[in-house]
Amino acid sequence: FFISQRSRLNLAFKNEKIQLFFSPQDVRVWGMERQLAKDPSFGLHEAWGQLTLSENLAIKAGRQEIIYDGHRLLGNVDWIQQARSHDALMFKYEKEGLKLDLGGAFNQSGENVFSTDYRPDNYKVLTFLHAEKKSDKFSWSGVFITDAFEKNDTVHDLSWRYTLGTLLGYRTGNLNLEGSAYWQGGKTKTDQDIAAYLFNVKASYKLGKTTLAAGLDFVSGDDPNDKDFQAFNTLYATNHKFYGWMDYFLNIPADTDGGGLQDYYVNVNFNVGSKSSLKFFYHQFFLANDIPDLSNPGQMLSSSLGGEIDAVFGHKIAPYATLNVGLSFYFPNATTQQIRGGSMDKTSTWGWMMLALKPQLFSTKDKN
After folding, report:
1. Phi/psi of residue 167, each to 5°?
2. How far apart are CA 22 and CA 13, in angstroms?
3. Residue 189 or residue 70, greater confidence
4. Are 119 and 126 in contact (CB under 8 A)?
5. What is the reported pTM?
6. Mean pLDDT lowest among 2-6, 125-129, 232-236, 319-323
7. Confidence of residue 121 (pLDDT cuts 50, 70, 90)
8. Which of 7, 141, 218, 336 could form a disulfide with 132 if both were Cys (CB 3.0 to 4.6 A apart)?
9. Residues 229, 188: contact at Cβ < 8 Å?
10. Is residue 3 packed enough to be buried (19+ CB in 10 Å), middle (13-18) or exposed (0-12)?
11. 210: number of CA atoms within 13 Å, CB side?
């Protein structure tokens, strides 16, 4: 086992014209840093400023989290200790319940004036347009995302990818319905055309202290006999939230060998009093497209990827302190063994405990 610690200090300022936010953090595994060492370890998670230009328009720039549509394509991945943030510029418009965000990023490895070489494992360019509107019962959002990657270290050409889609929600009484659909096009780094898609549906119902939910996530996979690349890439999502807490399928399509993913799930959330809760999740996973069985040439693997059970107990010790304890089980099969390793004859287990202390140290407000 290991102990991982994140220490983060949030500093915020706001008035009628400007907002500032800084969030330095230190992430470490206990014992990773040598005693008396001079190794640098402090980082900056967020550092941005937002300037109000008019009653409805603002501009925001700096290192920032970008989160939309419940983290489906753009999320902060806060379960991972270092979390995700972007160096970006954003224009924000809001009027009569309609929100429009237009943003972008252009990455460099240094202060390069005459060269734009950049590492191929991170996007060179990111742009997005997100629209959202909510009412008492209905919610709607739409998003268009473009990201581009350098093809290699010596060629300046970029491969561009385009993703667009919509999310719809309906709430009445204790019933909540939600669905989304996304399409992906553009080019891979090898100049192959992309034609991929993702959709999900979810229904939840609150019955007293218990909330019941069920749903389906479908992430398209690649057909090697087709000229187009059909495996949907979930971009900069918080996949830990959707595809099981054991994180077998964080990096899609790589974690399914391009076979995509079908996730049929149910979950139960039970509140124990006002300070404690119990959550249970069950996921049944399948490939969206068949992939070859490497141990039997000419044969295809079964589409079943096995199942996962997640259980979490949470307790609020104080207004600023929360304790969570989790236990998960994954039941693998031959397909899981080929694409994710391990043994199909052994149940995988994962247990964890997290103590979160989030006090507000100081706050002041100008009375003038």
Report:
1. -130, 135
2. 9
3. 70
4. no
5. 0.89
6. 2-6
7. confident
8. 141
9. yes
10. exposed
11. 5
Residues 116-122 have a mean pLDDT of 77
d(C-alpha 130, C-alpha 355), whole Å: 34
pLDDT digits (tens, 9 = 90+) for 30-66: 766 664 566 666 778 899 999 999 999 999 999 899 9
Has residue 68 got a pLDDT over 90? yes
| Whether the predicted pLDDT of 268 surpasses 90 | yes
* Nearest alpha-carbon partner for 60 in 21, 91, 86, 87: 91
Question: Residue written as tokens 């394509």?
Answer: 73
Q: pLDDT by residue (tens digit) across 245-257?
A: 999 999 999 999 9
Distance CA 318, CA 349 (A): 30
Q: What is the mean pLDDT of residues 110-120?
A: 74
Please give the pLDDT value at position 3.
Answer: 79
Contacts (Cβ under 8 Å, ≥6 apart) of 226: none
Give phi and psi for 339, each to the nearest 5. -90, -20
